[in-house]
């Protein structure tokens, strides 16, 4: 795609939009960057794009009526957004910032999608590639936008790219060299409508990747024949017939006729939840030429991301504290409960994004000593769970931490795994997690 001389519209003044604007300008396009907000902070964030030549169109309900050759949409712009419909009515092609970056990126692309665990796998793969002497950077939904990578670091060999369902709504071109779908669990159904549509967006990534490329999917996930026929389909999981599988203490892989074994003992991935994701990552790394020894080294040196099963404190009374604020779905809470080996005092609640699953009740009854509920959905969770586990409505996280600390005993774990979005009481899951850690350090002893 030749961008020289075109008149381009970029929707969204966040990180993705600013990256798209700057890349388009570098390719010779005229750019109008539109955002419905107009604040001092937004204008400050867009100073660099404006200095490069972008025209800002901020705080307006309507888009300019001039003719545009192309629209680049940030992930926040859903298919039913008024500005997307505006472009459709005027036959303006709409692509994602991700697609724009892919069209300008000269290196290889490792694409990672799924409902949970994407960012950790992206970081794991990028870190391990760099340790192995293959230059790489996280990109996409985690890391930096692919458009920024194409503009600022074109010399890198690999863009390890986290791909979200939001991005895939406007993406028709993403020529990945290798790709992973980690899992499909109910998420973002408020935007996509139903699980089937969400699943379609996850699988779309495989329909537009390079033909014949390795594609890693969960062992139990069914795919249509078109995907299976055009790709090298590889499975990961825990069963013996998977190409890459986790078993306690190690990963085993069979690929390209050879057997590979990776030692995980004592590391972050030595459990079924993270171990299965590590199996997929190991397969991808092996496929792009990283040796078993280098993969093992990368896995053992891996530093986990903040707010994801983060062991943040151990009190002098022998109580562990885990910050899993990134757990914004019920399935993520279930995974967290399975990973903790000691009795759990669970802090949960916030802005619920889905119906409460019946499947969690057995785990709550088996693993939890008590549940401390916070936020908007605390009554709903209380009504659903109090029949199987003792629950108390605390309202705010401050009260939940205080109560769980005072009641906890040696050998137990206080786990923040909300199962919800944070926007009822916090600006982000990061803010929620940081607040939890601050409170724990203050009151735990």
Structural class: alpha/beta
Annotated CATH architecture of the largest domain: 3-Layer(aba) Sandwich
CATH homologous superfamily identity of the largest domain: Mur-like, catalytic domain
State the major sheet: 9 strands, mixed
Strand count = 20
Instruction: Strand order, main sheet: write it out.
Output: 7-8-6-9-10-11-12-13-14
Number of helices: 18
For the termini, the CA-CA separation is 60 Å
Whole-number mean pLDDT? 93
Q: Note the quaternary state here.
A: single chain
What would you note in describing this structure?
The protein has about 450 residues and is of the alpha/beta class. The protein folds into three domains: about 5-90, NAD(P)-binding Rossmann-like Domain (Rossmann fold, 3-Layer(aba) Sandwich); about 100-300, UDP-N-acetylmuramoyl-L-alanine:D-glutamate ligase, CATH 3.40.1190.10; about 310-445, Alpha-Beta Complex (Protein-Tyrosine Phosphatase, Chain A). About 35% of the residues lie in helices and about 20% in strands. It has 18 helices and 20 strands. It has helices spanning about 15-25, 40-45, 45-50, 80-90, 95-105, 120-130, 145-150, 165-170, 190, 195-205, 225-230, 270-285, 290-300, 330-340, 360-365, 380-385, 395-405, 430-445; strands spanning about 5-10, 30-35, 55-60, 70-75, 95, 110-115, 135-140, 160, 180, 215-220, 230-235, 245, 250-255, 260-265, 310-315, 320-325, 345-350, 370-375, 390-395, 415. It has a nine-stranded mixed beta sheet with strand order 7-8-6-9-10-11-12-13-14, with helices on both faces. Helix 6 (about 120-130) packs across helix 13.
């Amino acid at each position: 795609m030749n961008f020289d001389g075109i008149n381009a519209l970029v929707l969204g003044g966040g990180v993705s939009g600013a990256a798209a604007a700057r890349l388009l300008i570098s390719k010779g396009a005229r750019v109008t960057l539109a955002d419905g907000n107009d604040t001092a902070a937004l204008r400050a964030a867009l100073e660099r794009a404006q200095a490069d030549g972008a025209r800002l169109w901020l705080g307006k309900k309507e888009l300019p009526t001039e003719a545009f050759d192309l629209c680049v949409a940030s992930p926040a712009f859903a298919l039913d957004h008024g500005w997307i419909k505006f472009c459709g009515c005027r036959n303006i092609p709409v692509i994602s910032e991700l697609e724009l970056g892919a069209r300008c990126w000269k290196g290889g692309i490792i694409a990672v999608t799924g409902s949970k665990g994407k960012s950790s796998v992206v970081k794991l793969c990028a870190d391990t590639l760099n340790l192995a002497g293959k230059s790489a950077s996280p990109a996409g939904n985690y890391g930096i936008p692919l458009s920024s990578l194409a503009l600022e670091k074109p010399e890198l060999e690999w863009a390890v790219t986290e791909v979200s369902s939001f991005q895939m709504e406007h993406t028709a071109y993403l020529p990945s060299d290798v790709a992973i779908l980690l899992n499909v669990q109910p998420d973002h159904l408020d935007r996509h409508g139903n699980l089937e549509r969400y699943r379609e967006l996850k699988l779309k990534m495989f329909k537009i990747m390079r033909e014949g490329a390795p594609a890693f999917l969960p062992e139990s996930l069914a795919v249509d024949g078109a995907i299976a026929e055009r790709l090298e389909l590889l499975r990961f999981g825990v069963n013996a017939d998977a190409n890459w599988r986790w078993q306690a203490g190690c990963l085993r892989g069979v690929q390209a006729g050879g057997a590979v074994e990776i030692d995980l003992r004592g590391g972050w991935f030595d459990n079924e939840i993270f171990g299965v994701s590590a199996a997929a990552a190991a397969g991808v790394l092996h496929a792009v030429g990283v040796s078993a020894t280098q993969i093992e080294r990368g896995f053992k040196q891996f530093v986990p991301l903040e707010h994801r099963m983060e062991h943040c404190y151990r009190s002098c009374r022998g109580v562990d504290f885990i910050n899993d604020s990134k757990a914004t779905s019920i399935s993520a809470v279930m995974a967290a409960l399975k990973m903790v080996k000691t009795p759990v005092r669970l802090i949960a609640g916030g802005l619920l994004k889905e119906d409460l699953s019946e499947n969690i009740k057995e785990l709550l009854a088996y693993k939890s000593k008590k549940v401390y509920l916070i936020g908007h959905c605390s009554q709903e969770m209380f009504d659903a769970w109090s029949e199987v586990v003792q629950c108390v409505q605390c309202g705010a996280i401050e009260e939940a931490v205080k109560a769980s600390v005072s009641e906890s005993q040696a050998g137990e774990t206080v786990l923040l795994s909300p199962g919800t979005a944070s926007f009822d009481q916090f600006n982000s899951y990061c803010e929620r997690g940081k607040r939890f850690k601050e409170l724990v350090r203050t009151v735990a002893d």
